[in-house]
Design goal:
122 residues; alpha/beta; two-stranded parallel ribbon; two-stranded parallel sheet
Protein backbone atom coordinates (compact mmCIF):
# COMPACT_ATOMS: atom_id res chain seq x y z
CA UNK A 1 0.00 0.00 0.00
CA UNK A 2 2.95 2.31 0.32
CA UNK A 3 4.57 1.51 -3.04
CA UNK A 4 1.73 1.74 -5.52
CA UNK A 5 2.38 1.18 -9.24
CA UNK A 6 0.35 4.16 -10.48
CA UNK A 7 1.37 7.30 -12.31
CA UNK A 8 0.60 10.82 -11.19
CA UNK A 9 -2.91 11.94 -12.22
CA UNK A 10 -3.82 8.41 -13.37
CA UNK A 11 -6.85 7.46 -11.29
CA UNK A 12 -10.44 8.68 -11.19
CA UNK A 13 -11.10 6.97 -7.88
CA UNK A 14 -9.20 5.45 -4.97
CA UNK A 15 -11.40 3.23 -2.81
CA UNK A 16 -9.81 1.99 0.40
CA UNK A 17 -12.34 0.24 2.55
CA UNK A 18 -10.86 -0.65 5.92
CA UNK A 19 -7.24 -0.65 4.77
CA UNK A 20 -5.68 2.82 4.86
CA UNK A 21 -4.70 2.23 8.50
CA UNK A 22 -2.02 -0.18 7.21
CA UNK A 23 0.13 2.82 6.33
CA UNK A 24 -1.73 5.39 8.43
CA UNK A 25 -4.57 7.69 7.47
CA UNK A 26 -2.55 10.88 7.13
CA UNK A 27 0.27 9.23 5.22
CA UNK A 28 -2.20 7.47 2.93
CA UNK A 29 -4.25 10.50 1.99
CA UNK A 30 -1.11 12.56 1.42
CA UNK A 31 0.76 9.98 -0.65
CA UNK A 32 -2.25 8.90 -2.69
CA UNK A 33 -3.37 12.41 -3.60
CA UNK A 34 -0.89 12.58 -6.48
CA UNK A 35 -2.46 9.55 -8.17
CA UNK A 36 -5.86 11.22 -8.58
CA UNK A 37 -6.82 13.07 -11.72
CA UNK A 38 -8.16 16.58 -11.28
CA UNK A 39 -11.73 16.07 -10.10
CA UNK A 40 -10.95 12.53 -8.91
CA UNK A 41 -12.29 11.03 -5.70
CA UNK A 42 -10.99 9.11 -2.72
CA UNK A 43 -13.26 7.01 -0.51
CA UNK A 44 -11.85 5.60 2.72
CA UNK A 45 -13.16 4.03 5.87
CA UNK A 46 -11.31 4.92 9.03
CA UNK A 47 -11.52 3.99 12.69
CA UNK A 48 -12.72 7.18 14.36
CA UNK A 49 -14.11 8.46 17.62
CA UNK A 50 -17.74 9.52 17.53
CA UNK A 51 -17.23 11.85 20.50
CA UNK A 52 -14.31 13.66 22.12
CA UNK A 53 -14.76 11.69 25.36
CA UNK A 54 -14.26 7.93 25.61
CA UNK A 55 -14.07 5.55 28.57
CA UNK A 56 -10.43 5.24 29.69
CA UNK A 57 -10.19 1.51 28.95
CA UNK A 58 -11.42 1.91 25.39
CA UNK A 59 -9.31 5.00 24.71
CA UNK A 60 -6.19 3.29 26.10
CA UNK A 61 -6.77 0.22 23.94
CA UNK A 62 -7.21 2.18 20.72
CA UNK A 63 -4.37 4.59 21.37
CA UNK A 64 -2.04 1.60 21.69
CA UNK A 65 -3.55 -0.30 18.75
CA UNK A 66 -3.88 2.70 16.42
CA UNK A 67 -2.38 5.94 17.77
CA UNK A 68 -3.74 7.87 14.79
CA UNK A 69 -7.37 7.36 15.86
CA UNK A 70 -9.18 10.68 16.15
CA UNK A 71 -12.62 12.26 15.75
CA UNK A 72 -14.31 12.41 12.38
CA UNK A 73 -14.00 16.19 12.32
CA UNK A 74 -10.24 15.92 12.79
CA UNK A 75 -10.01 13.34 9.99
CA UNK A 76 -11.93 15.71 7.70
CA UNK A 77 -9.55 18.50 8.67
CA UNK A 78 -6.57 16.28 7.71
CA UNK A 79 -8.21 15.61 4.34
CA UNK A 80 -8.68 19.32 3.72
CA UNK A 81 -5.05 19.98 4.69
CA UNK A 82 -3.99 17.33 2.14
CA UNK A 83 -5.87 19.17 -0.63
CA UNK A 84 -9.16 17.27 -0.74
CA UNK A 85 -12.63 18.81 -0.75
CA UNK A 86 -14.71 16.51 1.48
CA UNK A 87 -18.12 15.67 0.05
CA UNK A 88 -19.63 13.49 2.77
CA UNK A 89 -18.95 11.45 5.87
CA UNK A 90 -21.15 8.87 7.51
CA UNK A 91 -21.06 6.38 10.35
CA UNK A 92 -21.81 2.74 9.61
CA UNK A 93 -24.96 1.53 11.37
CA UNK A 94 -24.34 -0.59 14.47
CA UNK A 95 -25.76 -3.70 12.77
CA UNK A 96 -22.88 -3.60 10.27
CA UNK A 97 -20.61 -4.47 13.17
CA UNK A 98 -22.86 -6.68 15.26
CA UNK A 99 -25.00 -8.60 12.77
CA UNK A 100 -22.58 -8.68 9.86
CA UNK A 101 -19.13 -8.72 11.52
CA UNK A 102 -18.99 -9.83 15.15
CA UNK A 103 -21.88 -12.31 15.35
CA UNK A 104 -20.68 -14.39 12.36
CA UNK A 105 -17.28 -14.60 14.01
CA UNK A 106 -18.71 -16.44 17.01
CA UNK A 107 -19.51 -19.54 14.97
CA UNK A 108 -16.29 -19.29 12.96
CA UNK A 109 -14.24 -19.08 16.16
CA UNK A 110 -16.01 -22.10 17.67
CA UNK A 111 -15.33 -24.16 14.53
CA UNK A 112 -11.71 -23.04 14.47
CA UNK A 113 -11.12 -23.83 18.13
CA UNK A 114 -12.72 -27.29 17.77
CA UNK A 115 -10.40 -27.96 14.83
CA UNK A 116 -7.34 -27.05 16.94
CA UNK A 117 -8.35 -28.00 20.51
CA UNK A 118 -4.80 -28.53 21.81
CA UNK A 119 -3.21 -25.58 20.05
CA UNK A 120 -2.47 -22.88 22.63
CA UNK A 121 -1.88 -20.28 19.92
CA UNK A 122 -5.30 -20.96 18.40
Amino acid sequence: MDILPFQQDELDLIWSEGAIYNIGFERGINEWYKFLKKGGFIAVTEASWFTKNQPDEIRDFWEKAYPEIDTISQKVKKMEEAGYVPIATFILPEECWTKHFYFPQINAQEVFLKKYPDNKTA
